[in-house]
Design brief:
Layout (H helix, E strand, L loop, with lengths): L15 H19 L3 E5 L4 H14 L3 E7 L7 H12 L3 E6 L1 H8 L5 H22 L3 E5 L4 H8 L18 E3 L7 H10 L4 H4 L19 H20 L8 E5 L4 E5 L5 E13 L7 E2 L4 H14 L3 E6 L13
Parallel strand pairs: 1-2, 1-4, 2-3, 4-5, 8-10
Antiparallel strand pairs: 6-8, 7-8, 8-9
Bound molecules: xanthosine-5'-monophosphate (XMP).
Xanthosine-5'-monophosphate binds next to loops.
Amino acid sequence: MDPNVRPETMERITTPALAEKFIAEQVAAIKKQVADKKVLLALSGGVDSSVVAALLIKAIGKNLVCVHVNHGLLRKGEPEQVIKVFRDEMNANLIYVDAVDRFLDKLAGVKDPETKRKIIGAEFIRVFEEEARKLKDIAFLAQGTIYPDILESKDGVKAHHNVGGLPEDLKFELVEPVKLLFKDEVRVVGKALGLPDNMVYRQPFPGPGLGVRCVGAITRERLEVVREADAILREEFAANGLQGKVWQYFTIVPDFKSVGVNEKGERTEGYLVVLRAINTRDAMTATVAEIPFALLSHITDRITHEVKGVNRVAFDLTPKPTGTIEWE
Ligand code: XMP
């Protein structure tokens, strides 16, 4: 039997009881696979790696070593939440790596989107590799691979996005406890493991993070604008019942200034914040989410008044096709 093929008899995990059953089975399987050896995990704070972390903590406690790399392109509050949930509440063995300057220095002046992605991906592997080398007697690498990753990489649709690319001498045996699950099942399991709702029902977030939403060459100032505006958008969507209903929503800040006028009648130059909110099944095509006009106006008011350096907000009305979901 191919361990990477979901058996037809495997029941879809839709209820807390089925999640508990899966958790018990996986905890036993992990204990059997790793025994008293140590396991390393790159913990981004996304649903998949968080669920894998919680499962492994349940199975082997401090023998799981989680590495959280802050590359400076995370959303507001994310690194703090990873520390709070895993180190403070779950008592995990968590290494927090502040690599913000390292990434932003490497990205300075780089405009081309694919080059930005490559730099972020390669630097991530390098930081993770450095941390792995500092640790002694790690035998396994845990990954938040899920079933669509396996299906899509079989079809050659996407290169495996997890921590591939580690050098030969750092090849560990893999632990992939959720690799036969679909995303909705991972969420049911995450909920049963006691992870907070805003982690379990989190919208998809690209690996290069806010880096591809700070269009063109990233500057620290503009990155802060993307992050603060995104935090307001998320807060308002949550407060107005749209969290979990709209598939993906975020802000983009292009690399030019717009002309505006302040309340004293003076001319200003400021950033344009673009709001994007889309619905999709598989991210291959997407429709624009209908957001009440009053809410869009309120969000515009908040962003232009609360985020320094912004004088204009726009809403992207483009479905995919013709526009991709991200702007670059
Ligand atoms: P596009 O922009 O291609 O996005 O319509 C489709 C989905 O993929 C996400 N996305 C990425 N995810 N690394 C990722 O892990 C990337 O480089 C990347 N680029 C886009 C995007 O957020 C959307 O959900």
